[in-house]
Specification:
mainly alpha; 203 residues; globular
């Protein structure tokens, strides 16, 4: 059985449901309530599809490319750590992604689903937490369930976006994003250290 708390914290940090709220508000500012609901639903479903693909196909892709898991853990840990640093010291998720908004009709896909919900960090986390060599099919299903639970939480927050933004403001969302970045940096360091330990045992 997986560690539900650790898995939830990992996905909460990389998906960052709270940091997604200002992005959602910005891209739906000119939409009515029905359209806002459709945008939130489509963005969540697309993000779930992308992340479930990495849960299911992540390990086979590594095997096909002859990449051992320890190497991916180390590389993934480094990338996640850099991603976490950008969350801590950069503009923060809301400001960075709000700037990427344009007049496209598919705002639910970009930037809401990708890269706001299904971020690069979330994709890497999905692969690392569903490795076939370390987790059973049942444990991978549990991980996918936790991941979908975080996405459902994000959907719920988007549906409550107006009062939440009024409550915490863009500055509050930015602070939360930085706290999540700090937690993610610890997760990234753990992944890299575990990869180094596993690589040492292979030698």
């Amino acid at each position: 059985m997986i560690d539900y708390v650790a898995t939830f914290v990992s996905f909460f940090a990389v998906i960052d449901p709270i940091g997604t709220v200002p992005v959602f508000v910005a891209i739906t500012s000119n939409q009515d309530e029905t359209s806002r609901a459709q945008t939130a639903r489509k963005g969540t479903l697309v993000a779930a599809g992308v992340l479930l693909f990495f849960v299911i196909a992540g390990q086979p892709l590594l095997d096909a490319m002859s990449i051992p898991l320890p190497a991916f853990q180390i590389a993934g840990g480094i990338v996640l750590f850099l991603f976490a640093l950008s969350m801590i010291f950069g503009d923060g998720k809301p400001e960075e992604e709000i700037r990427s908004i344009d007049q496209r009709d598919e705002k639910a896909v970009y930037p809401l689903a990708v890269p706001s919900l299904a971020s690069p960090g979330a994709m890497l986390t999905a692969v690392l937490l569903s490795d076939n060599d370390h987790f059973t099919i049942m444990e991978q299903c549990q991980t996918a369930g936790v991941m979908c639970g975080v996405l459902l939480l994000a959907y719920g927050l988007m549906r409550l976006a107006t009062p939440i933004t009024r409550l915490i403001g863009h500055s509050g969302a930015s602070v939360v994003s930085r706290v999540m970045g700090l937690l993610l940096s610890a997760v990234a360091a753990t992944n890299a250290l575990e990869g180094l330990k596993a690589f040492a045992n292979l030698e």
